[in-house]
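Hi V.,

You were right to ask for the full record rather than a summary. Here it is.
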Amino acid sequence: MDKLKSTKKITLATLKSFARRNNDRLYCKSLSDFNGMTDCVEHVNGDFKRTQITDEINYYRSGIQGVYTVGSSDDYFHIYEDENFFGITIFNCCGSSVLAVKKLV
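Predicted structure:
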C-alpha cells in the first residue's frame, strides 16, 4: 500500500502491478457500466466481489476480471481508500470500477 501511495502518477502498468502483487486477495466493485440500450454509462449499485487475474486480454479487458480498460491514455486512475478497502479507481468510457484489497486490521 505504501508503494502505491508514493506513486506520483498511476498508470495501467501500476494497476497491473498492483493486481499481480495482490492476486490472491483482490476485490472489484463496479461503480458504473456502459449500457447499450441507452447508449451511455449508468450508475451501478455494486458491492465488492472477489476477483482475480485471468488469461482473457482483449481491447476492453485488462486481464483482471471485472476491470475494463481502453488504453491509449483514455483510462484515468486514482487511489481509492475507505474504512475497509485500499486500491485504485478506474474511470473510462466503459464505466468506472474499483480494484482493491481489504485493509489488514
